[in-house]
Amino acid sequence: MAAICVFCASSRTLPQRWFDLASRTGEELARRGHTLVSGGGRVGMMGAVAVAARAHGAHTLGVIPEQLLVREVADLDADEQVVTPDLATRKTVMIERSDAFLTLPGGLGTLDELFEVWTTAGLDLHRKPMVLLDVDGCYQGLLFWLRELVEPGFVRKDALDLLIVADSVPAAFDAIESRLG
Ligand code: AMP
Predict the structure, then answer these.
(1) Range of the structural domain that residue 80 is part of
(2) How many domains does the chain have?
(3) Ligand 1: which residue has its CA nearest to atom 21?
(4) Which terminal Cβ of the chain has fewer Cβ within 10 Å, N or C?
């Protein structure tokens, strides 16, 4: 059992299949007995993960900045809700309170969160597993571009390899669990 932080879209206007992916993720996390650490909002895929995780018995921890309580519709049903003074503290608390990170498709905020945990792992500031769920090649463009940055020396190959890429929800959790031991 681990505390798994899920980063994903807050957008409310996505095709239904992305909300379904988020719900499947929350359900699988609960089925495997993990705790969810999330952005603490009810909106978008983020909300769908939390609702599904709780519906299937998971403990949920939401970490939301004070200024987003209304905009991201604070998840008042969360078992624990931490309100932070700002966005930077939100990321710090999410990293501290989690054993592993799973990134689903998302927008700029999701990428910001992914790069925060990835860059800090690359600097040896933590050794927590990080998995990217790349469904339908959603992240192929980003991964291709980052791999291109290795050859000229902008990106270290060992830092790049810290991010595990999975192509299904069960494979993503298998990858996390195998690294948590
Ligand atoms: P998005 O992927 O843009 O839909 O955003 C996903 C989540 O990331 C939302 O809960 C945003 O509030 C959050 N977010 C956006 N920017 C930041 C940031 N700089 N630091 C922490 N969280 C952020």
Answers:
(1) 3-180
(2) 1
(3) 87
(4) C
